[in-house]
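During data preparation, we tokenized the protein backbone, and the record follows.
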Amino acid sequence: MPGMADWDDMVDCEGLLCPLPVLRARKRLLAMAPGAVLCVRATDAMALIDLPHFCAEGGHTYLSSRDEGGVTLHLIRRSETPGT
């Protein structure tokens, strides 16, 4: 089971539909240090497609996803390039 040691920041997108989880993740990642890990909590099944695609396009690393009782935790490592 993940704990705070697994990530540096979290954004709660439970109940939000596409494209809001991606938009909120993008905004939070822009405020984070390069190399930091963001946890996105999402209930929208499309996030399993949208977040990895967003990471590939933005240069971020999609680390993993895991289900925790109907909420999927998505871990994303912030790009090393500032401003992405």
The chain has a mean pLDDT of 93.
